[in-house]
Amino acid sequence: MDPDVSVLLHCAPWRGLRERQIQVELSPRFNRHILADTEKHIESLWKERTKRETWLFNGAKFRLHSAKWTTPHIPTTTPYNGRGAQEVDKVPLETSRQQCCCLDEEGWDHTQTHTRCGGQPAVPAPETCSGDRPTVSHSLKDTGHQREPVQLSLQLGLTCYKDFLGTNWSKRVGELQKRGGVELGDPQALLAQPLGVGAVMTTADGQVVLLRRSQKVAEAAGLLDIPGGHPEPKAVCKAISEESITVELLQGREEAVLMEIFFSVLAEIRDEVNVPLSSLGEPILLGIALNHTSAGRPSAEFYVRCSLTAEEVKILYWRGGPEANESTDVVFLRETEWLTLDESVPLWSELCPSAKGAIILHQVVMPVKGDL
User: Which of 13, 100, 166, 239 is the most buried (most CB within 10 A)?
Assistant: First the structure.
């Protein structure tokens, strides 16, 4: 498989996870491990970068430390088909060791540090998003299939863009990973690992929406990507400056953090594609992919249906949204074609790692068009 991307976890047995089936844990224990010489390196890189690119600013991000399932039981049968049970084992999973929950042959979980994890289950989400963000009515309906009350727990700390540039994006990242593995038992312990989000957005007429990234963006310039970005701690702590946000301030606001993760993917679609929130359905978590071009940075990939046709989306895109400068074109691909993409197709080389991860997860979790 493609060395640029791998899968940390997927939600195939339940055909995707909805918001109400996930919980968030926040703790300083989930922050990046601090070493004095590493901090000097980060500060030096940041000063150099901001001197050259004066428009850069630092911002708080959620750090994914680990993810685990909170129930000991999984049904013995799972709805794999298409690229399902046989193919999922071929997906190259994370090369960086992270805490995650595995399940033994009888379905009981046991948390362990590992380099390979697969076959985890998923779970169903709330009918609305509320709180500090605008209320969004979700249009997707449960199909009536019985689902176990499994919950996924996301263990989150805090990091920032400066730390991402100085660790995951640093030329010394290999050294940092080696040191983390040897000294701390976790190759990712010294890395920022900001949690991103991405959306497999499908139109009413069965097209997947891709964006051609601008040549002016820092990463993957000119490649095709899915809409995406990052959930923002600032959205949960509105009255506090970015530099003052701490995990301690976020504790007790776990539901708001989870809501921000799910809402942020809709907000990214709105801002990048310029479609109204009212046209978007409930985000369904497909899983978490790792981008190895930035040292295994995690991204939660979602499936989101849009009530607009491809032509309607195209018209709105070209009117320009708040983040129109990040892309130069909108590209549509039939969902049936999207679900068959792999490395043998020339288009694969034009895709960002985030798009590749979303494809792999979509093919495993929802291998059939409209499989909900």
Answer: 166
* Interatomic CA distance for residues 229 and 234, integer angstroms: 14
For the chain, give the number of residues.
372
Residues 6+ apart with CB under 8 A from 51: none
For 167-211, the pLDDT digits (tens) are 999 999 999 999 999 999 999 999 999 999 999 999 999 999 999
- Is 293 exposed, middle or buried, given 0-12, 13-18 or 19+ CB atoms closer than 10 A? middle
Residue 85: per-residue pLDDT: 29
Measure the CA–CA gap between 197 and 195, rounded to whole angstroms.
7
* Helix/strand/coil for 120: coil
Residues 6+ apart with CB under 8 A from 18: 123, 124, 125, 126, 282, 284, 285
- Between CA 211 and CA 193 the distance in angstroms is 24
Tokens 């009888």 map to which residue?
Answer: 106
Quick one: pLDDT at residue 158?
98
Model confidence pLDDT, tens digit, residues 154-172: 999 999 999 999 999 999 9
Q: Residues 221, 346: contact at Cβ < 8 Å?
A: no
- Alpha helices, DSSP H only, in the chain? 36-52, 85-88, 161-166, 173-179, 233-236, 247-250, 254-273, 310-319, 335-338, 353-365
User: Alpha-carbon distance 269 to 276, whole Å?
Assistant: 9
Tell me: the pLDDT tens digits for 280-313?
Answer: 999 999 999 999 999 999 999 999 999 999 999 9
Reduce the DSSP state of residue 76 to 3 states and report it.
Answer: coil
Residues 228 and 199 sit within 8 Å (Cβ to Cβ)? yes
Q: Which residues pair with 297 in a beta bridge?
A: 291
Q: Are 20 and 285 in contact (CB under 8 A)?
A: no
Per-residue model confidence (pLDDT) at position 149: 60
Pick from 126, 150, 110: which is nearest to 14 by CA?
Answer: 150
CA 144 to chain centre: 27
User: What's the number of CA atoms in the CB half-sphere (13 Å) around residue 311?
Assistant: 1
First to last CA, the chain: 27
Q: How far apart are CA 49 and CA 161, in angstroms?
A: 12
pLDDT band at 117 (very low <50, low <70, confident <90, very high): very low
Give residue 287's identity as a one-letter amino acid code. Answer: G
